[in-house]
Design a protein that fits this description.
By secondary structure, the protein is of the alpha/beta class. The chain is built from 30 helices and 26 strands. Among the domains are: 18-106, BRCT domain (Rossmann fold, 3-Layer(aba) Sandwich); 118-205, Rossmann fold; 226-340, 3-Layer(aba) Sandwich (Rossmann fold); 351-460, BRCT domain (Rossmann fold), CATH 3.40.50; 739-870, 3-Layer(aba) Sandwich (Rossmann fold), CATH 3.40.50.10190. The protein is globular and about 85 Å long. Residues 621-630 have a biased composition (Basic residues).
Length: 871
């Protein structure tokens, strides 16, 4: 305890606080010490009911102390009662400074992944230190301006830093790491391993050959016994006659709890009896009524019982979760692990069209991802082929990863899959978090840390309004709804699983007898006074509409199309808004001629069980008709013909593919580009390096209307206004691009700051498309080497378009902001150090060079402090 002495008359710092201690993972001695400290500082310790695992009189509690968010009242305390939940260290920290510390810094919330860290910075630029401090605090950690024993992570650029020298001399137990670690943690949204970033010999500064293979990781604790939603074999060790079993052990997680089994579990009598005995031995009981239950166990997110239990805030989990409670003899939140919560029977909308494979995940991690893919409704493939739509990789160094790049398959990390499932909605592939792979890091180490999004599940499966039953959906499909454009819904006989009482009535009516009154089909338009096709059906229509009245919000859901996020450069929507230009393609298949690499070459890496599946798929392939060879790979930019209409988009793309047109978003491999005019989007600018034929949108109009391909020359794009404004002709730029062969910026290293309009990654991609390299500039000159470019003509090179290259000029793309001044000064130091000429430029410089396809310089593109200060 720190010094808690107070001035006379001042109340104790915990005066008026009523604090409860959750005993999970806190030793009894520690619990007693916490209770004594709280009382010594004027607080009251509220009781915790160990028999029920709940907090009595939660409304009267002011603070909750817990090492984890994994206790029954956590979400209710935060969401409904706004009670702070803090770690035990909050007590000592508050006592040390004699005032209440910010509860957020001590939160056990797993989303605040830096909450255990105390970070200190060495001699970094002041702007970097401020950014790191802000990020650490936002992620629940603490930032220390001085080096002390409490520091867990020291961020420096070199071991010669005075604070690093002090840490080594004093043998302080802290990680001494590069700033790159912090940047990469924020990009992933998880705390990743410090190993590749640790000084004095960080792996991330080595080449792949020097560093060797990326180490495999042990299965994450977060997926242990949470990789299979139906672990039917885990308790089958009890599959002997019950009279020979040992007496059931008491499971305190069930003490005082009533458990109900859902009918969709399909438990046999023997297994159900084993589980029942374990529950009763632990002081619980099994019930058949959901109203009486504290725990409801089922496989799928459907049925009246599931909805009732969920809306009543009961604990709802699956069989895997129940086994976890039995095995570990402690309570855990079923929403904490994705595979502990019931699955959506129909998967996640949109995933049914996907074929997903994985790379570099092994053992239990591989099993977990395979089951998660299936739970989303997608097809999991052990082999990786050209018709796969997605590859989920743990890192970038694998045969499958290289093949996916070559074939144009979407490459993402597992966070995209987990968060799509957790949020009940496909997450956009354009979010950099899902395509980022930290160097020398195996992302399997952070597998399973995503939790079910409670609000998303509630909105989708048990909202406050009743969802229409499947019987009512049949009425919608048959009759239509005046004033609604809801799409047809597939009828289903599984009426008893509906969340609506109407479904039960429909079932009763259906089974009451063999005689039924046929209902003539009716087709209602938006006109209210249209005459129905059958006499007397007006009353039936009114009754149907009455039943559907409460379902109107649900029907409206079917009218919404998921929009993808993207971004454009200048003058358009910002990155946070939807952009058709950056919409990610979702092809159901891939071009069979894209590569000659064999399936065996790709799959030898990781899966021995793929042979049978591959053979079966080869047999299926023989039955399928061959696809039309790809004639044109077409990239579309700023054409909004499919915006908000995913169904039309899919049909049109399929039709175009049959005619030999493959719509792609891969701007590195395109021969035709289609746009309404010349635009400065990332895809348009980057794709120019391929030297494509550029056509108007009328080209696609013709193909879709006439069902045949016209000569591209009849639809060439001309935009004289743009050409006049920007000083180059598009047709000449295309000719130069063909000469350059994507090598215009070869041997160039161009630096980009974070503040540039459109996002730094946009310009880095444009640079890469033209054969150059780019670095993010954060003022860390001693980590970067700069070298002059060779300007002598090289046989077969593109020197005719590089005649204005001065060779010794080094470029920094920045913004006209005063906050950028410190970075400019450091950049000039870098250039001086390497005997080069610094040139700090606007984004316009790169856009011109990439679009005109030749190196050129205009002084109006240069940035300096005087110009910014005068503006």
């Amino acid at each position: 305890m720190g010094d808690t002495a107070m001035l006379d008359g001042d109340p104790p710092i915990f005066h008026g606080l009523r604090i409860v201690i959750i005993p999970t993972d806190i030793p009894e001695e520690r619990q007693q010490q916490l209770a004594d400290d709280i009382k010594a500082m004027g607080g009251t310790v509220a009781p915790f009911n160990t028999s029920t695992g709940r907090i009595d009189d939660l409304a009267d509690v002011t603070h909750i102390i817990s090492t984890t968010s994994d206790f029954p009242d956590y979400h209710r305390a935060l969401t409904y009662l706004e009670k702070p939940v803090v770690k035990p260290t909050w007590v000592e920290a508050s006592a040390k400074v004699n005032k209440l510390k910010n509860p957020r810094v001590y939160s056990p919330d797993p989303a605040l992944f830096m909450s255990e860290l105390v970070v200190c910075c060495g001699n970094l630029p002041e702007s970097d230190q401020e950014a790191i401090a802000g990020g650490v605090l936002a992620m629940g950690g603490q930032f220390s301006p001085i080096m002390s024993k409490s520091v867990t992570h020291l961020i420096v650029l070199e071991m010669e830093d005075p604070r690093a020298v002090l840490a080594v001399s004093k043998r302080l137990h802290c990680h001494i790491i590069l700033p790159h670690w912090f940047d990469d943690c924020l990009k992933v949204g998880r705390k990743i391993s410090e190993r590749p970033y640790t000084l004095p010999d960080p792996e991330i500064l080595k080449t792949q050959a020097e560093a060797g293979a990326i180490p495999a990781v042990r299965a994450s604790q977060s997926i242990r016994q949470a990789s299979n939603p139906e672990p039917v074999d885990e308790l089958m060790q009890h599959n002997t006659s019950l009279e020979h079993l040992e007496p059931p052990r008491a499971i305190r997680a069930f003490n005082g709890k009533r458990v109900m089994f859902g009918s969709d579990l399909g438990l046999n009598d023997r297994l159900e009896q084993v589980v029942t005995d374990l529950i009763t031995a632990g002081g619980g009981e099994v019930t058949k009524k959901v109203e009486e239950a504290d725990i409801y166990v089922c496989n799928y997110r459907e049925g009246n019982d599931y909805v009732s239990a969920s809306q009543a805030n009961k604990d709802v989990g699956n069989l895997s979760w129940l086994y976890y409670l039995i095995t570990h003899n402690t309570w855990t939140n079923p929403m904490r692990r994705l595979m502990h919560y019931p699955r959506p029977r129909e998967g996640i909308p949109g995933f049914g069209e996907y074929r997903i494979s994985i790379s570099s995940y092994t053992g239990e991690a591989r099993v977990y991802l395979e089951n998660l893919v299936k739970a989303t409704g997608a097809e999991f493939t052990k082999t990786f082929k050209q018709d796969n739509t997605h590859l989920i990789a743990a890192h970038q160094h694998s045969e499958k990863y290289e093949a996916a790049k070559e074939w144009g398959v979407n490459i993402i990390n597992h966070l995209w899959l987990e968060e799509s499932y957790a949020k009940c909605k496909e997450q956009t592939l354009t979010d950099q978090k899902y395509s980022f792979f930290p160097p020398r890091t195996n992302l399997g180490e952070v597998l399973g840390q995503t939790e079910i999004n409670r609000k998303a599940v509630e909105d989708a499966f048990f909202p406050k309004f009743r969802k229409p039953s499947k019987a009512v959906k049949q009425i919608i499909q048959q009759d239509g709804v005046p004033g609604s454009s809801a799409p047809n819904m597939k009828p289903s006989s599984d009426v008893n699983k509906s969340a609506s009482p109407v479904g039960e009535k429909a079932k009763t009516a259906k089974t009451r007898g063999n005689v039924s009154t046929p209902v003539a089909p009716r087709h209602f338009e938006e006109k209210e006074n249209q005459t129905p096709g059958t006499t007397g059906s007006r009353g039936a229509k009114d009754r149907a509409l009455s039943k559907l009245h409460d379902a109107a919000p649900d029907i409206a859901r079917f009218e919404k199309e998921m929009k993808r996020k993207g971004g454009v450069i200048h003058g358009g929507r910002r990155e946070k808004d939807t952009s058709d230009d950056d919409r990610q393609a979702k092809p159901k298949g891939r071009d069979s001629n894209a590569s000659k690499r064999s399936i065996e070459e790709v799959d030898a890496e990781e899966d021995e069980d793929s042979t049978d599946e591959a053979a079966g798929n080869e047999m299926q392939k023989k039955k399928k008709p061959k696809k039309t060879p790809i004639i044109h790979r077409v990239l579309i930019s700023k054409d909004e013909r499919w915006q908000g209409d995913a169904n039309k988009e899919a049909k049109d793309k399929a039709k175009l593919r049959e005619l030999g047109i493959f719509i792609t978003d891969d701007y590195s491999n395109v021969d035709v580009m289609c746009a309404p005019k010349i635009v400065r989007t990332k895809k348009f600018v980057a794709a120019l390096a391929c030297g494509p034929t550029i056509v108007r949108t009328s080209y696609l109009d013709f193909v879709l209307t006439k069902n045949k391909l016209p000569p591209v020359e009849k639809h060439l794009l001309h935009d004289e206004e743009f050409e006049k404004e920007h000083g180059f002709r598009l047709d000449e730029a295309i000719e130069r691009a063909k000469q350059n062969k994507k090598r215009l910026l070869r041997d160039w290293t161009i630096y980009v700051t974070d503040a540039v309009t459109g996002g730094a990654q946009t310009y880095r991609d444009i640079i890469a498309a033209n054969g150059g390299k780019s670095n993010m500039w954060k003022g860390r000159a001693n980590q970067i080497n700069a070298s002059k470019r060779t300007i002598q003509p090289v046989p077969g090179d593109v020197s005719q378009n590089q005649e204005e290259d001065e060779g010794d000029v080094i470029y920094l793309i920045s913004e006209a902001k005063k906050s950028e001044f410190p970075l400019w000064e450091k950049f000039r130091d870098l250039a001086k150090k390497h005997d080069m000429v610094p040139r700090i430029v606007k984004t316009e410089w790169l856009l011109f060079v990439a679009m005109a396809q030749y190196v050129h310089w205009d002084p109006e593109w240069e940035l300096n402090e005087d110009m910014v200060s005068a503006s």
